[in-house]
Amino acid sequence: MQAVPLHSLSELERASLQEIALYQLQEKLLVGDLSLAKVGPKGSKSIRQKLESFSKEKKDCSPQTFGIPLFQVIANDRAYKQLQEAVKKSRRLCLEVEATVTRFRAQRQRRSPMSRTFGMVPCWVFPEEPLSPTFLHNSSWSQRRGAMSVDSITDLSDNTSKLLEALQLSHPHELDARRSLGKKKMLSLNPITWQVPRIVDRCCKHIETHGLQTVGIFRVGSSKKRVQQLREEFDRGLDVFLDEHQSVHDVAALLKEFLRDMPDSLIPRELYAAFLSTASMEGPAQLATLQLLLFLLPPCHSDTLHRLLRFLSEVAQHAESSWGPDGQEIPGNKMTVSNLATIFGPNILQKEKPGEKDASAMNFEDSAAIILVLQRLIEHYQTLFMVSPETQHDILRRLFQTDPDVIDYLLRRKFNAVPSTKSEDSTEEHAPSPLPGRTRILESSSVSSELYSNISFLNLDVGI
What we know:
By secondary structure, the chain is mainly α.
């Protein structure tokens, strides 16, 4: 078993990992009686809050991106993407119908004289092939679900081995309707979809493409008018494209505003003190504690923070000037890890909500600790978001006590899954594919031996 990325774990495994991390942090006295529900998305609103929000929506259209919880931003992005796919599907169907009608008219004009006399249309005018032979293959795989598909452990029958092989990728918030039917929360056995807001990903990609050599990025002022226009377009749910004509400084300011105005900060405020306490640690102990704290984050916060840290690391790599292949000097952007941590630290680690009293007040000790913590996150983000084999074994031990039926499938998924060549920004992870033909026969013994060795190591009395 090898170290795997955090986002490759299933929803059930991530929930178990959160419990393990919370227990270890409580042993270190870094967090008190912290409930994982407090760290995640907030619960339902009260009746008064719903009435107040409804009255505000009637006066003004609710924003789609700025000033709303992160999980709601991602839900809005997903709804917009589904709408776009439906529009493209309908347009493609209209074009196919139009092409069919055009072909029919052309064929009718070439009818035989006898058919013209009797007004009959020959049978060859109507092709036997379907109107759109490739339409089914062009449909999105995410909309196809097998007849034996299951999404959670509560849907398993006695024949778990066959059902588990039919599992598909689960999307967060898609199963809420079915989850509410049962008393027990249903957790998927497959990885959660990659959750990064559209605005964050597009701002990062724009700067990575056009602004890595821009001197003083995130420090040089921007056009308030252009930034406000971009903000309003995102809030209206428009498909905003950031191309080379957009100012890098405007896009940088837009990204900072989004992080600053989040009502639930990227690192939840319940973990503010725990993250700052790591500033006094050093070496492996500091990184191990930071990793445990990152494991507590909800998936949408964890994925977005990972994308942001990867972007900031890329910016920092271009801080110093370099020389091109033709001997020409390429200026650096002067944004070192320390400078980036100074700018983004207060937006990522917030003690108070934006607009609240004393929200901008911060003592020197806290400010220095925030900068130091974010520096460590940027420098070591690649290892911090990996799950070690030892931790994976702890997860399986815990799951064996609560959900022993899923152990066999989870182990086979780890060893049978083909290494993915897709980028981290992909929004889909695939269930393990069966090994084809002779290859599966040759490798089945090695896979079974690995499974057996891991189960023996876990002290699990499970038959393969």
